[in-house]
Amino acid sequence: MGKDVIIACDFAGKNECLAFLDKFEGRKPYVKIGMELFYAAGPEIVREIKARGHKIFLDLKLHDIPNTVKKSMSVLSNLDVDMTNLHAAGTISMMEAALDGLTREDGTRPLLIAVTQLTSTDQERMENDLLIKEPIDKVVMHYASNAAKAGLDGVVCSPLEAGKVHNTCGANFLTITPGVRFADGDVGDQKRVMTPEQAKKIGSDYIVVGRPITAAADPVAAYERCVKEFVD
Ligand code: C5P
User: Fold this and answer.
1) Residue 6, Cα to own-chain centre: how many angstroms?
2) Which residue is catalytic, options 3, 32, 50, 61?
3) Pocket flag, ligand 1, residue 209 (CB < 6 Å)
4) pLDDT digit string (tens) for 100-156?
5) Is the CB of 210 under 6 A from ligand 1?
6) Which of 6, 18, 25, 135 has a 20 to 30 Å separation from 122 between CA atoms?
């Protein structure tokens, strides 16, 4: 399972996103649709990209009471996405309810991935705003273990944490890692980055790559470079 490059299609609208995907012609990269595009373009954008033959990671990070998350996951499952996610902070009960909602009548379901602590949350904010006093690395691993206990398939984490997540939660527990940059590329606003090749070595299962591909002069060549470094 895994070892694929997922392109973060962080576009403001449907036309921009489809025009970008048109550039790939025969190739069908795995696509991440986030909140911005989903809220702007609605479920139709998912149906359209699926109909073109792409796999979809729908990155909506659900977090609500278990019943609401269960019902919402059931809707996302009917959209036939391949992967979706939620916040592990919603508790084990919420994650179990999500899995239940996501599972179709025939027993199949999209992969379900947990977000642990967002990378925008640092130790100070976690202690002061959330009153969580433990070291952030311990909190991240605890949330990852909770996700594994609930039966989820993996977590979103920094490539730097992928090895530790596998040690804690098992080799088959998936690590989906953003924060990927080419060795000769712009880091932008990402703080802790790795190249696709390093992410492969450290054991990431999927890398999520946005601007190094979407903002490249030749996005198809940039995508192929990612695949070559990470998958081949
Ligand atoms: O453009 P870039 O490669 O930085 O895009 C990374 C993608 O991964 C974006 O969609 C971003 O929202 C997402 N992401 C992230 N860091 C996280 C979780 C998600 O960069 N911790």
Assistant:
1) 8
2) 61
3) yes
4) 999 999 999 999 999 998 888 899 999 999 999 999 999 999 999 999 999 999 999
5) yes
6) 6
